[in-house]
Design a protein that fits this description.
InterPro entries: DUF4187 (IPR025239), G_patch_dom (IPR000467), GPATCH11 (IPR039249). By secondary structure, the protein is mostly helical. The chain is about 60% helix and about 0% strand. The chain has a domain at about 130-190 and about 205-250. A two-stranded antiparallel ribbon has the order 1-2.
């Protein structure tokens, strides 16, 4: 029985211990332990920028600005409040005949409101701002004067250009009328007009030179000659039978009369 008991104990041990069938557990290396430990122990650092500490000069400047703002606020608050009757200045005015709500002076032409107060914290003089305004105003006036002068010059140039073009057009008309009158006079006198020959290399005359050669007086001379000697009017385009018909039927000597 002892032997049988030994066999049974061995069988029980064999079936009860299952760890012999499992693979051995992996042992982590020292380097992986260090890495895992480092990751777990390192806290997350935020990238917030630390505020810059101010030096004593900047702190003094900020403190002075703060005090100035407080003083300005107190001054403006005092201006908004009404002067009490217990004020020494108010009592002096009342003794001299001042009535609250009325203007200063006997005739009522004085001030109704106190003199305004303007707070200045800069070191500029009393007339510095007025001088700067005067310079700015003078600068604007000079700029406006230059602009007006430029515009006036452009208008004068346009007017001069139009006047010159008008004279050129009028000169071409005079030149054309003169050539027609000269051709009509040559035809009435039964002669030929000899025109000057031009070489191929010669440049033609400009319109300004032609206008200087033929004037209104020269044109009127040949028109009068046509009327007096041949009873012919260039603008009517006909020769009248008598001088009486020419004077009665022809409007006049100039182109504008026709």
């Amino acid at each position: 029985m002892a032997g049988n008991d030994g066999v049974e104990e061995d069988d029980d041990d064999y079936m009860g211990d299952l760890s012999i069938f499992l693979p051995p557990p992996e042992v982590p290396s020292s380097s992986s332990k260090k890495r895992s430990g480092t990751k777990s122990q390192t806290p997350s650092v935020s990238k917030t920028k630390m505020p810059r500490t101010l030096n004593w000069q900047e702190k003094r400047k900020l403190e002075r600005e703060r005090k100035q703002r407080e003083e300005d606020e107190q001054t403006l608050a005092g201006l908004e409040s009404v002067i009490p009757e217990s004020n020494v200045g108010f009592k002096m005015l009342k003794n001299m005949g001042y009535n609250p709500g009325s203007t200063l002076g006997k005739d009522g032409s004085g001030r109704l409101e106190p003199v305004g107060l303007e707070i200045r914290r800069s070191r500029e003089g009393l007339g510095a701002r007025e001088e700067a305004k005067r310079r700015e105003r003078s600068k604007m006036e000079r700029a406006r004067y230059k602009e007006e002068r430029k515009q006036r010059s452009e208008e004068e140039l346009v007017e001069e250009f139009g006047f010159r073009k008008k004279n050129q057009w009028k000169g071409r008309l005079i030149l054309g009328d003169y050539r027609k009158a000269e051709a009509a006079l040559a035809q009435l006198e039964n002669r030929e007009i000899v025109e000057p020959e031009k070489d191929d290399g010669d440049e033609e005359k400009t319109e300004d030179e032609e206008e200087e050669e033929i004037t209104v007086e020269v044109l009127n001379e040949i028109l009068l000659k046509l009327r007096d000697e041949h009873r012919y009017c260039l603008y009517c385009g006909c020769q009248y039978e008598s001088s009486e018909l020419l004077l009665s039927d022809c409007p006049g000597l100039d182109r504008d009369d026709h």
